[in-house]
Amino acid sequence: MSDLPSYQSFAVDVAEGIAHVRFNRPDSLNSMTKAFWLELPRCMQDIEARTDARVIVISSTGKHFSAGMDLGVFSDPTAVPMTGDPGRMAENLRRVVLQLQDTLTSLEKVRLPVLAAIQGGCIGGALDLVCAADSRYCTADAYFTIKETELGMTADVGTLQRLPRLMPQGVVRELAYTGRKLSAGEAKDLGFVNAVYDDQDAMLDGVMVVARQIAANSPLAVTGCKEMLNYSRDHSVEDSLRYMATWQAGMFRPGDMMKTFQAKAQKTAPKYDALFPVKGLFE
């Protein structure tokens, strides 16, 4: 597999089938700059196209996971014009918001499971981001807040749409209306995070254990799980069962199962072929 390009907003390492995406701007509280919003979906695509990774871990550096949206994103007059015809300004802003939404939806669209490891503050847009991950883990000092409400706006890139599917509606509405902090303990009790760790090192160790377990399984079976779970979330049980049957008819092959049975008989770890890289038609 070819090397990944460099990114301004994060560093990426791939080892043992795990792509570790690490936000690396701690002096700026890992705020989500214009470069971040452009780079994240490209990074997801690059991991699929250029690596043999089978799972993605997103973590951060410094005291806080991320302070959320960098206000500089909206101060660029070329991206968000603040003068001129109101209708045209509104149409432009709508497209900007849709692009920001698509950036975070890339975590759902990538065929690999995405695990988020969160320390300290996970604020505003950062909460939107981790809501799009498959699973979340945090440190005891972590907290989550829908900060946009306190700033006089409605959160618009995913939290209000995804969070109600991850914890009780009444709690989500309270968090949205008040902007208060959700503690790590409360997040664990509500099922928003899978586990809480004493510190960041312990958290990363724990998350990497989960990531290695995922990477050891058949990548075709794992991506099938993600596809079915995402589809079932947004469709009826009947529709989801029908889609499951179609997926199984098209994607299921006995090869990986035979490797599993042979490995068990030989008391060894099965070795599965990687998925084909996701590339453009003529690449």
From TrEMBL:
Coiled coil: none annotated. One of its GO terms (molecular function) is isomerase activity. Keywords: Acetylation, Fatty acid metabolism, Isomerase, Lipid metabolism, Peroxisome. InterPro entries: ClpP/crotonase-like_dom_sf, Ech1-like, Enoyl-CoA_hydra/iso, Enoyl-CoA_hydra_C. The keyword DNA-binding does not apply. It holds the Pfam family ECH_1. Pathway: Lipid metabolism; fatty acid beta-oxidation. CDD domains: crotonase-like. One of its GO terms (biological process) is fatty acid beta-oxidation. It is found in: Peroxisome. GO terms for cellular component: cytoplasm. Transmembrane segments: none annotated. Belongs to the enoyl-CoA hydratase/isomerase family. PANTHER family: ENOYL-COA HYDRATASE (PTHR43149). This is Enoyl-CoA hydratase. It comes from Marinobacter profundi.
